[in-house]
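Researcher: Before we compare anything, I want clean individual predictions. No alignment, no superposition, just each chain on its own. First chain goes here; please echo the sequence and then give the structure tokens.
Model: Echoing the first chain and its structure:
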Amino acid sequence: MKKDEPPMEDDLRPEYRREDLGKGVRGKYYRAYTKGTNLVLLSPDVAEVFPTADSVNEALRSLIRVAQAVRHRQVRRPRGGG
């Protein structure tokens, strides 16, 4: 805030009652929200090992690479009689 501006007036009430807020609509933004995000709740033991979104994504990408390499090897392996 610039020094020349007067302080903002606080028009918030100290407390609100539910009926003051109007009728809510369950799931109003659900569909739009799920299109833009993919949230996953990690179990506490997993969250200890992967504390950030980047660490989770890095681990999952590594797992994807391993799975693709294994699948690629299985496809290329000739089937022979034993």
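Researcher: Okay. Second chain, same rules.
Model: Second chain and its structure:
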Amino acid sequence: MRLIFFGLTVGFLALAPRAIAQSARASDDVAQTSLSQQVSTEFSSQAQLKGFYLTGALGGNWPQAANVHGLNTATPYGFQEFHNSGVSIEAGLGYDFGQLRSEITYSYDASLASSYSDSWGVYDYSPRADVVKNNALVSLYWDIPLSSRLVPYIGGGIGYTALNASPSGQLGPIYTPYSAYLASGFGYQVKLGMSYLINRRSDVFAEAVYRGMASYQASDGIALNEYGNYNSLGFQIGARVRFGK
């Protein structure tokens, strides 16, 4: 009997440390899983933060060629106008509903009208005309939830665009001056971007932008022209500061 009791005691003492170690490892696994779930939930709640926020961005835009047709010419006449790239600035106020956000923004897109081409050739403007679009747009965006600090989004907006172009001219045997002009019309934009959540109240983002203005009419001092949609591709980086709870 004493030998049996002694054997059981030795066996218990041999197995106890292993059982304790396995129990400790299991506790650590549970704790790590709980912490991981907590972090995931925290990031998810940041992505869903609701309320008002301020937004601002800076970048560049690359206008597409604009098709132009003369309206009061003796014979039908048309040409394509080409623009150099320029700076873009955007600022506004938004509201985060969760996965959906709405924004009211003002954006500034500058470029240079550099040349035009018609059936006779390609001609440079001298001086080149400064062309500026001032856009007031209302937009809606969908933040795609990933339970991560990185949040992709897509959206677009519509509104009003005012355009102004500075005086320019065309070199040649006889210098041809073109007067400044103003125009306004329907404005629109589409965006695809990625946000990075810094904390619950701020994030930074990078986005591709397609922003444009519907066709409009304007006189350059020589003829009354109809300009086709004036569109540009752009890229912006910016930040948002939130005031929600």
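Researcher: What stands out in the second chain?
Model: The chain has one helix and 14 strands. Additionally, The helical segments are 2-47.
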